[in-house]
Amino acid sequence: MVAHATKLAPSILTADFGRLQEQIQAAEEGGADLLHLDVMDGRFVPNITFGPLVVEAANRITQLPLDVHLMIEEPERHLDVFAQAGASIITIHVEACVHLHRAVQQVVDLGCQVGVAVNPSTPIESVREIAPFVDQILVMSVNPGFGGQRFIQTMTSKLRRMRKLLDEYNPTCDLEVDGGVGASNIREVLRNGANVIVVGSAVFNADKSVGENLTALRDACSASSA
Ligand code: DX5
Ligand code: ZN
After folding, report:
1. Cβ(60)–Cβ(87) under 8 Å?
2. What is the pLDDT of residue 223?
3. Is 16 a catalytic site residue?
4. Verdict on whether the full-model pTM lies above 0.85
5. In the prediction, which pLDDT does 51 show?
6. To test the ligand 1 pocket, which listed residue (17, 38, 90, 186) has its Cβ within 8 A of the most ligand atoms?
7. What domains can be seen in the chain, in order of their start residue?
8. Considering only CA atoms, which of 199, 211, 184 is closest in space to residue 12?
């Protein structure tokens, strides 16, 4: 069995964009492992967020690897600009891409790590043939489009089944979970095989500071291995 390092990936979706630099620095100082950037086009998902300009700005602000989650149609048309903007990992959706293997290869050729994401209703088998070619599989645990949604409970079993599939087809592959994860359920997703944990509203919220929230999440993670 390959041991997969646990990584916390704060998503800036619910951050205060008027203080983006401060918020990103707080995440880095608070011990984040990656910075998760949610790109939405208003077509693949109902919401519109930002494009390569914000990725490029984030790249100037932080040393953290940038985990760029593309929730856009025809992602293959935009991969180069996100690579140039400083993405470390580019994740594209299986539902958004007809020629997925070609798009994955494009990301590799651009010198980035590559991830493939699946929506909650998309079966794990949809990534079986692409699994050997990727660095990361992302299981959406909410319907993509917005921060602060409730975790879909059946996704814990999906994570477990996805990890099993990856153990067979690409054992070193990371398994990322995205949506509705916080201190109360992070143990559960880790136990079920996720190792890269996206945390949006659990980190960037009005209740506590970014640093306090990250400490609470890390404490909850270590409790899981006790
Ligand atoms: C949802 C995005 C997520 C989201 C996570 O479409 O892909 O990355 O920002 O936010 P929380 O953790 O609040 O569900
Ligand atoms: Zn995301």
Report:
1. no
2. 75
3. no
4. yes
5. 98
6. 38
7. 7-224 (3.20.20.70)
8. 199
